[in-house]
């Protein structure tokens, strides 16, 4: 009797095991079919979106994004299969493939290699000294600090700042930055957004601000000593930052040289440090349009920008002024070259030459800015709003690096820049600025 019972029990056990295995196999097949359908659906939706927006060259960008995402999906799928073979348990976790995948990426480069960089390697890779980097992290920690959640450990502030700096310095694709730091593409995007926003909110007011009256006096003295321009407190210029065609109003962003851009107007002191900036005007705007619609113009026209200190020059009381190129209108506080219609005398030539030489400070500042931060050189494919934050952040970082006297490698300078649009504003009737400019012409010819 007991024999029959035992065999019956064994039979029942086997049936149970067979049933269990069958169940697992069925679950596997169903799960796989479901994933395939999901992938197919995502791809079809992407393609459709792509076709709809086949306009302009925004198309190219979307295609890249599409192939990125497809590759990411493939990689995900591969990893998923690997895990399925490893253990039956993987079935249970299959739906959490995404979190598995993020854990599989390697953070070795940042955790083990970058932390042992020499000072020179640090500058070469992050475009700034370790001290400047520490300063940034220290100041941004209050806004960037996150607490760990039950599901994942948050990324440390230092690493997030490093991710953002890498993007600004190289303009590498989000995906490639992600591979280097062992984080996902969307994490890189989030780091760049948050760090740039924090730099603009916290560091910009400290490092790019209208100088105090004492500081203005120092700047004027420096310009006079080095460039022999009395009462000059800054040089203004505009540069265009290449972007991919935006989805909306793309035509407004085409500049005079026929590429899409946003304008960046800056004022620098005699040491290539920015003390004012205005970023984000669409590329089609000319320099005089940008300045007339900037805060600088409002303040200066109302007499609230420059302190009222004057100096007697060639019989004229000359206040502080900024110098600009032929794209800018002549004002009492804004000097520009005298239009050359072939009838200039020697003194006037001398003045134009002096102005041009002195204005090289702003050209140098742009060269160093773009040399350090390559995202300003290549067509920036981020969202327009983010692009403006990136530009201002780069300017703040430029000031920081220059103030801390971080090394600048000459080989970072580049001539591979798109040709910048040139604007010339004709001079109309004489203005108040004329008498001041005449005094300067006389003074400089002595
Ligand atoms: C990096 O430096 C730490 C000490 O600061 C050391 O323990 C570690 O082995 C170094 N790693 C490499 C890859 O040299
Ligand atoms: C600059 O742009 C403004 C408006 O966009 C236009 O009215 C003006 O004529 C332009 N000036 C020059 C010199 O092109």
UniProtKB/TrEMBL annotation:
This is Zgc:113227. Its cofactor is a divalent metal cation. Keywords: Hydrolase, Membrane, Metal-binding, Nuclease, Nucleus, Transmembrane, Transmembrane helix. Residues 236-399 form the DDE Tnp4 domain. One of its GO terms (cellular component) is nucleus. InterPro entries: DUF8040 (IPR058353), HARBI1-like (IPR045249), HARBI1_dom (IPR027806). Belongs to the HARBI1 family. Residues 119-200 form the DUF8040 domain. The lineage of its organism: Eukaryota, Metazoa, Chordata, Craniata, Vertebrata. It is found in: Nucleus. It comes from the Eukaryota. Its main location: nucleus. Coiled coil: none annotated. The chain crosses the membrane at residues 6-30. GO terms for molecular function: hydrolase activity; metal ion binding; nuclease activity.
């Amino acid at each position: 009797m007991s024999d029959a019972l035992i065999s019956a029990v064994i039979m029942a056990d086997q049936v149970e095991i067979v049933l269990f295995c069958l169940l697992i196999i069925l679950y596997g097949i169903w799960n796989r079919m479901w994933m395939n359908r999901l992938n197919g659906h995502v791809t079809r939706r992407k393609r459709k979106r792509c076709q709809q927006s086949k306009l302009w060259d925004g198309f190219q960008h979307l295609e890249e994004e599409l192939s990125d995402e497809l590759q990411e999906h493939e990689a995900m799928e591969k990893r998923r299969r690997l895990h399925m073979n490893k253990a039956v348990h993987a079935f249970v976790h299959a739906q959490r493939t995404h979190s598995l995948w993020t854990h599989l990426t390697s953070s070795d480069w940042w955790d083990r290699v970058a932390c042992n960089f020499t000072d020179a390697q640090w500058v070469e890779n992050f475009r700034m000294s370790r001290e400047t980097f520490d300063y940034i992290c220290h100041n941004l920690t209050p806004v960037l600090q996150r607490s760990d959640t039950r599901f994942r450990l948050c990324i440390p502030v230092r690493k997030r700042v490093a991710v953002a700096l890498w993007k600004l310095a190289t303009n590498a694709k989000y995906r490639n930055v992600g591979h280097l730091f062992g984080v996902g593409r969307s994490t890189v995007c989030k780091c760049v957004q948050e760090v740039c926003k924090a730099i603009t909110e916290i560091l910009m007011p400290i490092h790019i601000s209208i100088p105090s009256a004492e500081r203005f006096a120092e700047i004027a003295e420096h310009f006079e000593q080095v460039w022999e321009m009395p009462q000059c407190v800054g040089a203004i210029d505009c540069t265009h930052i290449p972007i991919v065609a935006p989805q909306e109003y793309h035509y407004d962003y085409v500049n005079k040289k026929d590429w899409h851009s946003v304008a960046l107007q800056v004022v620098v002191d005699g040491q290539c440090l920015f003390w004012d900036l205005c970023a984000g005007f669409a590329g089609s705007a000319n320099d005089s349009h940008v300045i007339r619609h900037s805060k600088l113009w409002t303040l200066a026209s109302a007499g609230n920008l420059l302190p009222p200190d004057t100096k007697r020059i060639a019989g004229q009381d000359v206040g502080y002024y900024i110098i600009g190129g032929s794209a800018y209108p002549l004002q009492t506080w804004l000097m520009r070259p005298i239009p050359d219609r072939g009838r200039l005398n020697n003194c006037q030539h001398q003045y134009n030459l002096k102005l041009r030489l002195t204005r090289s400070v702003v050209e140098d500042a742009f060269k160093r800015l773009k040399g350090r931060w390559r995202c300003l050189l290549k067509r920036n494919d981020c969202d327009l709003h983010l692009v403006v934050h990136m530009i201002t952040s780069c300017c703040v970082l430029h000031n920081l690096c220059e103030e801390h006297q971080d090394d600048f490698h000459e080989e970072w300078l580049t001539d591979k820049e798109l040709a910048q649009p040139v604007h010339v504003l004709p001079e109309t009737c004489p203005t108040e600025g004329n008498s001041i400019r005449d005094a300067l012409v006389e003074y400089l010819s002595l």
